[in-house]
Design brief:
By secondary structure, this protein is an alpha/beta fold. It is about 45% helix and about 15% strand. The structure holds zinc ion (ZN) (2 copies). One zinc ion (ZN) binds next to loops.
């Protein structure tokens, strides 16, 4: 049995259910050899995870998953080995965070104009101290009896084109890649399968992102079918990108996904991490 790892995990710093320290302990208890913390648009969990890793003598990779904007929606860029104290990185993340907060306020204002009385305080209570986003607003609308389900909250009010939708400040994919690179990190295109593009189109996107400094491709991923995995592996080889892998673990918030195992069959060997370190001269 080779040594296994998980390079894509969320904590309470974004939308995962485990604290950063709990995630590290769970990775160790699950028999993994390393874990990366990759919260959405924040490095707030990184310090705690690194400290717990140090305490347990368990390898923790500081990371992030940045949501970048593309015309058809969003593209996620993972960053590994980042300096989580980098000022340009923190400044950009603060700007994303501020826009997220004003966005929530503006969504609430729109809901008021639609005669749904919900308050920011109620929203914060639902989010329980982590990042606040539309899933929490949807949950609040369900709790207050305005809609029967979160899905309907999105379909009727919150999604793009609906009356309570508000645009959000986003980075472009190349801005996200440059930010990660400037923070000493390695930029990786996350779950290419979610782009809903053909292999040829993904190869084209990868070619464009390489110019901005892309170094890896998340080939091994919970939702990738075997033929997608093979196709992305070929693209990675052709472009000399390091293949990476992760489950997109969110704890109880995505109950079907096990740490290091995805839906059961994912295996991410430590060799991938060794190759990443070699590429980054670590
Ligand atoms: Zn993602
Ligand atoms: Zn993720």
């Amino acid at each position: 049995m080779p040594d296994l790892i998980d390079l894509h995990c969320h904590t309470t710093a974004s939308d995962g259910s485990l604290t950063p320290a709990e995630l590290v302990r769970k990775a160790r208890e699950s028999g993994l050899k390393a874990v990366a913390v990759t919260d959405h648009d924040t490095v707030e969990g990184v310090g705690e995870a690194l400290a717990e890793g140090e305490r347990l003598n368990f390898e923790v990779i500081p990371g992030i998953e940045i949501s970048a904007e593309i015309p058809s929606g969003s593209m996620h860029i993972l960053g590994y080995f980042i300096d989580h104290t980098s000022s340009p990185l923190l400044a950009a993340l603060r700007k994303l965070q501020d826009s997220r907060e004003t966005r929530n306020q503006r969504i609430i204002e729109k809901l008021h104009s639609l005669h749904m009385e919900v308050s920011y305080e109620e929203l914060l209570r639902i989010a329980g101290g982590g990042q606040v986003g539309r899933p929490h607003i949807a949950e609040l609308l369900v709790q207050k009896g305005f809609v029967p389900s979160s899905q309907e909250a999105f379909d009727i009010y919150l999604k793009k084109g609906r009356p309570a939708y508000v645009e959000k400040f986003r980075l472009t994919p190349s801005e996200a890649i440059k930010l990660i690179t400037r923070a000493g990190g390695m930029a990786v295109l996350a779950h290419p399968g979610s782009l809903n593009k053909s292999l040829e189109e993904v190869a084209k996107v990868v070619g464009e992102l390489e110019a901005a400094g892309l170094k890896g491709l998340e080939v091994f991923y919970t939702e990738h079918a075997p033929e997608q995995t093979r196709g992305y592996q070929r693209i990675a080889n052709k472009h000399h990108l390091i293949p990476t892998g992760g489950t997109d673990y969110h704890g109880d918030y995505k109950p079907g996904i096990k740490l290091g195992r995805g839906r059961g069959s994912l295996r991410i060997p430590y060799e991938l991490l060794a190759d990443m370190k070699k590429k980054m001269g670590r």
